[in-house]
Amino acid sequence: MTTRHLVSLVTGVLIIAVLIPICLSVWLAHRQAEDTFVEALDRYSERVLIRAERVVGQGKMALNQLNEFQDVPCSHEHLLQMRRVAYSLRYVQEVMYVDDQKPVCSSLEQVSNAARFPPPARVTVDGYSAWLTQQNDLGFKRFMLVLGKGHYMVVIDPASLIDVIPFGTWPIEAALVGEDSNVVFASSNPLKLDVWRQLHDERLTQLQHKGSMYVVKNVPELRYAVVTWASLEPLKESWHRQLLFWLPFGALISIMAAAFIMRVLRRLQSPRYRLLDAINARELVVHYQPIVALDSGKITGAEALVRWPQPDGSMLSPNIFIPLAEQTGLTTRLTRLVVEKVFEDMGEWLRHYPDQHISINLSPADLFCDELPSLLSRLLNHWKIKPQQIALELTERGFADPKISAPAVASLRRSGHPVYIDDFGTGYSSLSYLQDLDVDTLKIDKSFVDALEYKNVTPHIIEMAKSLNMAMVAEGIETEGQLEWLRRHGVQYGQGWLYSKALSKVEFIMWAEINLDPE
């Protein structure tokens, strides 16, 4: 994966890292508020269920007491007993004595006018019959809950089953609905039947519908359900309160994640990673500056000079990215790419002209790279090129300690590669220094060629090279005067704009073909 792709990936991760904690905070705030809201409805439903069980339990207790009466039915004593029960138990509205489901008398009337009761809607597991009916001695057309056992029935107002005050500051409604009949027989506020049908048919325990939250609790014993509901406005207010806690927390995490990822992003966009990306993508190109024999002007080879094309079409100077590669440990990768590019570009040409050569610049680190000799050997065999056709250039820094560098240089020379000292004279050069080096050619730095007229160090460099039988290549020849001076002083080879600038592969081959043409 290239650095460009990594930058895109990390940028995407940055956006996600910023958004996810904030979105998660919003979600958590809403979830917390909703859980609290539903929990309040659940608690209210539980309280309604407890209240309903208490009311029904009181009705059962009344029936148990009445069935213990042994006196004459509907007598004065009997009526008084029924009235005592109805009076003492707050949830019992009326007590009726029945014979074959037909009310005979009640706590309200000595002679009951109520019609015969149909078979019970359901019978509880402990033997109590239950009805939801409008039958009563007062003639009120209102659904009442009736429990019966033996010869007695008790009438209970269903509203007492849901008469529970919410603990919160916002209103909660409740309703009792028959699961079989879908009849709402007690409700603190009207319950929409379409909502109940959806809850019942889909067997939902909770539902959000048109700005309200509904929660259902079933009472299997009596086959009715408790439905509680409330407006979602308190939920929104609670959500906003939760946001005051969760949103700053999420924002803090987002800032920390963004800071970390920005650090990674800046690192990926650093010059080192840009150069590494260019090397991995093989974006760097090699240009070739001809090296000619000064006496004849004929080409003898070329120096390979790496270039880094930029998106705007310009070429980044090697004076910028070569030091960058050295400082960031990328020199061996860069050298490997240059070597491969040289063989790709010039392999066929070198095989066709076995007396020509290409010189490749090495860094000090390349001397101790185990991969370089095997890479050169493999490519030489592939292209059928002689080792003498690939010269290797090292600056004086590469020979800073001859005792350390000498074995590596000797190994390269044994493989057949000529070794050059590049930019000679810019360091701490001396005759003893040169004597310790086992090299073939000395390259005179351009700064000395530019100052031939007023610097007397260049003749000393030339004399040192002659005394050691080293060939010489003068760099940066730009004028005929420089050329004549160098010829007179015995410098054999040169390169510079007087002959040609560094050329692309195609341009160099065309230039070389013209130069080599005997006509």
TrEMBL record:
Transmembrane annotation, as ranges: 7-29, 243-265
Taxonomic superkingdom: Bacteria
Alphabetical list of InterPro entries matching this protein: CSS-motif_dom (IPR024744), Cyclic-di-GMP_PDE-like (IPR050706), EAL_dom (IPR001633), EAL_sf (IPR035919)
Record PROSITE patterns: EAL (PS50883)
Catalytic reaction list: 3',3'-c-di-GMP + H2O = 5'-phosphoguanylyl(3'->5')guanosine + H(+)
CDD domains from the UniProt entry: EAL
Membrane topology, from the record: Multi-pass membrane protein
Pfam families: CSS-motif, EAL
Keywords, ordered alphabetically: c-di-GMP, Cell membrane, Hydrolase, Membrane, Transmembrane, Transmembrane helix
EC number per UniProt: 3.1.4.52
Domain (EAL): residue spans on this chain: 268-516
Localization: Cell membrane
UniProt-recorded name of the protein: cyclic-guanylate-specific phosphodiesterase
Naturally occurring in which organism (per UniProt): Lelliottia aquatilis
Taxonomy of the source species: Bacteria, Pseudomonadati, Pseudomonadota, Gammaproteobacteria, Enterobacterales
